[in-house]
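Take our chain:
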Amino acid sequence: MDVFIEPIGKLINEFSKLPGVGKKTAQRYAYRIVSMTDGEVQTFAEAVLDAKRRVRFCKVCGNFTVAGEELCAICRTRDKSTICVVKEPRDVVALEKLHTYTGVYHVLHGVIDPMNGVTPNKIAIKELLARVQEGGVKEVIMATNPDVEGEATAMYIANLLKPLGIVVTRLAHGIPIGSELEYTDEVTLERALVERKAL
């Protein structure tokens, strides 16, 4: 016999399909939904449906935009001479929170990962090359994650872009501010040592 009555069990099952949501969190979400007023649930459901119906990908960079707008606000208004390449739209949000980058983005929608069948032609590399070949791009910043797949993707793209005379840079890696050396992992510490800068 299932512990939860069918409607709650079904809700828990749906919430647990979300990334990072375990069974306990899914249960809390389900209980919260059940305890909401009909109006609150209606507003919540409408927000989910509205996002699904109206969110699209920018035809230039692959970031999120609203249905009816071919280009995202960043592509419409920013300096196009610098392109920052990221894995997912959520990475754009992380960088935008800094309020310091003034260029545009290119979202790959994945990274090269042969073990999981993700080859270069399955992510938006050819679209990036097309943007660069249109002219006007001076620098491409590789901002993929500093893991094996992110590094491999960055190197692959850099090798394609360098013959085109484009400056290709990589986000710096190193020891986080406020951390202590003894607690820093060896890979990060080695990268910080190799990529040290003059003062």
About this structure: Residues 78-170 form a domain with the Dna Topoisomerase Vi A Subunit; Chain: A, domain 2 fold (CATH 3.40.1360.10). The mean pLDDT is 92.
